[in-house]
Structure formats: structure tokens, C-alpha cells
Design a protein that fits this description.
The protein is of the alpha/beta class. It has 4 helices and 5 strands, in the order ββαβαβαβα. It has a 5-stranded mixed sheet with strand order 1-2-3-4-5, with helices on both faces. Helix 2 crosses helix 3. It is globular and about 45 Å long.
């Protein structure tokens, strides 16, 4: 007998120029990531595969399990983003969330930095895009 759990966490993703803007509210469970990945794939079609960046806005408790992090790393490894700017201004778990993001992005050599506002994050991100 399998048990279906409800999704914990939410996301909203839009394309703005050559930047994928992801608003993600945590915490995130196993059921969250397949939904997130489908949304990312749908929005990624709007970009030049070799010239886009990600602006990730973290909200709430931006944490997940190690197994979810591993599967998400495998997914983003295939994505092709040049860099990721992470806005942690609305994140209530800043230290652990920064550690998780650093582990994920660092393991795939994705350029990333943390910010407290979207303006600075976008300026930094644009330096990596044509």
C-alpha cells in the first residue's frame, strides 16, 4: 500500500529576459521536487540554453532532506544555467539554507552568490550573461 502525501512547499517561476525567477517557499518534502522540476523545464524552454541565469528568492524555511537535495543536484546539473543569484532576505533559515545551496551549487561548479535584495542580485547575475 502506498501513501500519497501532500506537497509541502510552493514555487512560482517566470522568465524575465534571460533570467529565470524562482520564488520558492519552504520547507520542501519529497513531493515538492517533481512539481518544481516540471515547472523549471517548462520555463527553461524560453531561454537560450547557453545564456540564462537563475534568480532564486527563498521564502520561509528553505530546507529539505539530504535525499531531496541529491536528486535536485542531479536535476540542476543538466540545466545549463550560467549562474544563480540567491535572495535570502525573506528566508527564516538563512544559515542552513546558505549551507545547502552552497553544497548543491558548489558540487556542480555553478557560479552563485547570496543577496538581500533582488536589485543587487540581478546586477550581479547580469555580469555572467551576454
Amino acid at each position: 500500500m502506498s501513501i500519497n502525501y501532500s506537497i509541502h512547499g510552493s514555487s512560482h517561476i517566470v522568465a524575465k529576459g534571460n533570467i529565470m525567477v524562482i520564488d520558492a517557499v519552504g520547507p520542501w518534502n519529497d513531493e515538492f521536487f517533481p512539481q518544481l522540476h516540471k515547472k523549471i523545464v517548462a520555463v527553461r524552454k524560453h531561454f537560450d540554453a547557453n545564456n540564462y541565469g537563475v534568480l532564486l528568492n527563498l521564502h520561509g524555511e528553505a530546507v529539505t532532506s539530504p535525499s531531496n537535495l541529491r536528486s535536485h543536484i542531479a536535476f540542476i546539473r543538466q540545466g545549463g544555467a550560467r549562474a544563480a543569484a540567491v535572495n535570502i532576505s525573506d528566508c527564516t533559515t538563512k544559515a542552513i539554507s546558505q549551507e545547502l545551496i552552497s553544497q548543491a551549487y558548489g558540487s556542480i561548479n555553478l557560479k552563485y552568490a547570496f543577496f538581500n535584495n533582488n536589485s543587487d542580485a540581478t546586477i550581479w547575475l547580469q555580469t555572467y550573461l551576454d
